Amino acid sequence: MSSSTWEIVTSALPQIITAAIQYTIPLTLISFVLGLLLALLTAMVRLSPIRGPFQIIRGLFWGYVWIFRSTPLLVQLFIVFFGLPNLGVQFSPWTAAIITFTLNVGAYSSETIRAAILSIPNGQWEAALTLGMTRRQVLFRIILPQAVRVSLPPLSNSFIGLVKDTSLASSITIVEMFTVGQQISAKTYEPLLLYSLVALVYLVICTVLTILQGYLEKWTSRYVPTQH
């Protein structure tokens, strides 16, 4: 590695890491937590035995999931940030990114949570209700703890995917890691080197998250009998 290349690396890498700490990681964490809350609400509404006019509510949630799972995330970002101002609704880049990522995560994760809840045998509902537990108690004490274990791998994958998807926030002027790489590349004329550094930081972050995912899966499965 030449001295000039090394100078670029030592100068750019701290800036890329700083952007990760200031923007990429907070954007991921905030959006994912809010997205999970929305996903849980969406899954519960779609699974609830709603009758009569309240079926419209379930239909609205179904429509929300359908729209956000059927359109590209980049298009959603552009609609929220560039499109809604035409209707008099304007958000800062940070707020627009959080709203879009939250809605996107909520749509995908709601299907994961819904499938996890449906995977629990109905016999457990019936047995718990027979013992005098309310449906709320059965849900939060018996069904959801098992559903968490089932849904953990796909939800973890969604979280790791969101870390990488935050690079799309550069398209609405958020100065996250990819944007920093672009800016430095424009000054140094070293796109391969700079984008490789950005990829390296993403690789490290996602590798750490993958390791943590493995530990979480083991911890949530600690009471599950192993099959030989």
Automatic annotation (TrEMBL):
InterPro entries: AA_ABC_transptr_permease_3TM (IPR010065), ArtM/GltK/GlnP/TcyL/YhdX-like (IPR043429), MetI-like (IPR000515), MetI-like_sf (IPR035906). It holds the Pfam family BPD_transp_1. One of its GO terms (molecular function) is L-cystine transmembrane transporter activity. It is found in: Cell membrane. Coiled coil: none annotated. Its main location: membrane. GO terms for cellular component: ATP-binding cassette (ABC) transporter complex. Keywords: Amino-acid transport, Cell membrane, Membrane, Transmembrane, Transmembrane helix, Transport. The keyword Membrane applies. Residues 21-213 form the ABC transmembrane type-1 domain. It is a multi-pass membrane protein. Gene3D superfamilies: MetI-like (1.10.3720.10). The chain crosses the membrane at residues 20-41, 61-85, 91-109, 192-216. This is Amino acid ABC transporter permease.
